[in-house]
Amino acid sequence: MHNISFQNLKEIVYLFLKLGTIGFGGPAAHIALMHNEIVKRRKWLDEQHFLDLLGATNLIPGPNSTEMAIHVGFVRAGWLGLIVGGFCFIIPAMLIVMALSWVYVRFGTTPQAEWISYGIKPVMVAIIIQALWQLGRNAIKDKATALIGFGVLLLFFLGVNEIALLFGGGLAVMAIKNVQRLKLRSTPAFIWPFLGSSLPVMLVKVFSIPLLFLTFLKIGSVLYGSGYVLLAYLRSDFVVRLGWLTDRQLMDAIAIGQVTPGPVFTTATFIGFILGGAKGALLATLGIFLPSFVFVAITNPFIPRLRDSVWANSLLDGVNAASLSLMTAVTWQLGRSSLIDPLTIIMALVCLALLVKFKINSTWLIAGGVIVGLLRLWLF
């Protein structure tokens, strides 16, 4: 199944180190960049396979974009590719966050990065819109997926929990497409266990490296949802339960995770560093990302088989449609915070035109965004 070769591994290393370095904008932006590189440019996967992997990442806990890197590495180069893909996507962000953590510990603050966000975010909005259009043509297959996709989008803006929408959308499409097969005596029961927010450990406020690792391991094992959910987990454990961080330190950690490229979960790297130095940073990073490698390794072999089952096939269609709707909602929110003046609006429109008309490599567009941000910093 897996064509494992040194060339394949080199390609994986190059691609995910690059994406981990330029991947600003959060999971939706990362997915869009991966789609552009993996489906459009390199043709490692077709649209449907990419969508199915994306849907599968939404069914397990952990950071979606990191899990996509792990999935693609596994598909491209087997077990070694699984490890290499994930690590290469994480390492650039981890090293950047560790450097910023050192500055924070040394000087009590972090370098300002508004120019990065100003220049890059409009570019990322354009990249995400293009990916949404291309993925949506495959995800919205019929009236059922269109109806559920629209419903998920509407309910999200009405404040319904995104995880409930994701699983509910999948189950709804499965029910609609298989309504004639439904029988009361054979209605499947789905039980999704939700673990508590605290490990059964001593409620002590004395810092220890093993407890730091176990706390992040637990968070990586049970966390679904956005960065806001991550914030809630981190505050519950590190501010309230353990008392190791102040609210100000926690917000600084979240801010670092947001303005640096790569996975937002590298917030754990920052927290680990300010609590336990380089050793703490490495163990915190390992703890929060390790479950993703395990979950992907377990689930990846089953994804192609889902398409062979009528029930699972329609469930995956529903999850894909719901995932794209949630990604659309995030894009709307990102656009509102990114397109803040005529220049950023023009940047987004120009980048979208370049992507659609001339198929410009997104890396060059991001570099252009950085240049615009630098010019703004110097001139204003």
List keywords for this structure.
single chain, 380 residues, mainly alpha, 0% strand, globular
- Strand proportion, as a percent range, falls in under 5%
**Measured on Cα atoms, how large is the radius of gyration?**
21 Å
Q: Count of DSSP E strands?
A: 0
Shape: globular
* Helix/strand/pairing category: mainly alpha
**Sequence stretches where pLDDT stays below 50 over 5 or more residues:** 184-204
- Overall mean pLDDT stands at 82
User: Helix and strand succession?
Assistant: HHHHHHHHHHHHHHH
Counted by DSSP, the helix tally is 15
Number of domains: 1
Description of the molecule:
The chain is mostly helical. The protein has one domain (1-108, 140-184, 196-333). It has helices spanning 6-22, 27-41, 47-58, 64-107, 114-139, 143-157, 162-177, 209-222, 227-241, 247-259, 267-299, 303-306, 310-338, 342-358, 362-379. α2 packs across α5. The chain starts with 5 loop residues before the first helix and ends with a helix. The model is unreliable at 184-204 (pLDDT under 50).
Topology:
Elements: H1 6-22, H2 27-41, H3 47-58, H4 64-107, H5 114-139, H6 143-157, H7 162-177, H8 209-222, H9 227-241, H10 247-259, H11 267-299, H12 303-306, H13 310-338, H14 342-358, H15 362-379
Helix pairs in contact: 1-4, 2-4, 2-5, 3-4, 3-13, 4-11, 5-13, 5-14, 5-15, 6-7, 6-13, 7-13, 8-11, 9-10, 10-11
